[in-house]
Design goal:
87% of the residues lie in helices and 0% in strands. It starts with a helix and ends in a 10-residue tail after the last helix. The longest helix is centred in the middle third of the chain and has 90 residues, at 47-136. It has helices at residues 2-45, 47-136, 147-153. It is mainly α.
């Protein structure tokens, strides 16, 4: 049923296009061509028509230029006002964004500082503990906190253990 509806729609479109094309050709042949021929005849054989067109163009050039200038000016004013409105609204939303971003960023900065301090403290404590264990003789290798005996029990041989 969808294919048959599609076929009916396609055939209706083709029929309408064919009728429209024929109508436009008929309209052009009965109205367009004679009007164009008559206008060309008047333009070439009757000089007052040219005088009228040239005079209308000359007399309307100043008002047309004023209208175009006015259009450009009003477009510029409206665009400037819209631009100011856009800047103001964008600034407002930027302020709202910063009102959320700055406190969140500050809290995350504090948390990162706290975590970095804790990690640095743990790393330093590990170094101090390693130094202490090496000094006490519990660990022979300062790089190996578990000691060569524990590693050997696990079946892994430490190349620096025999130093």
């Amino acid at each position: 049923t969808i294919d048959s509806a599609k076929d009916v729609g396609t055939s209706a479109y083709e029929t309408a296009s064919r009728i429209r094309h024929g109508y436009m050709q008929t309209l052009n042949s009965y109205i367009g061509q004679p009007t164009l021929k008559y206008a060309n005849y008047l333009w070439e054989k009757f000089p007052p028509v040219r005088w009228l067109v040239y005079t209308l163009a000359a007399l309307n050039s100043i008002p047309l230029a004023a209208f175009i200038g006015w259009s450009i000016l009003t477009f510029g004013v409206v665009t400037a006002l819209a631009g100011v409105g856009i800047v103001v609204s964008q600034g407002f939303f930027m302020f709202l964004g910063f009102a959320v971003f700055i406190p969140v960023s500050f809290c995350l900065l504090c948390l990162a500082g706290i975590w970095a301090t804790i990690a640095t403290g743990l790393w330093a404590s590990l170094g101090v503990a390693n130094f202490g264990l090496v000094q006490l003789g519990v660990v022979k290798n300062p790089k190996n906190l578990y000691g060569p005996k524990r590693i050997a029990e696990a079946g892994i041989h430490d190349r620096d253990a025999n130093r």
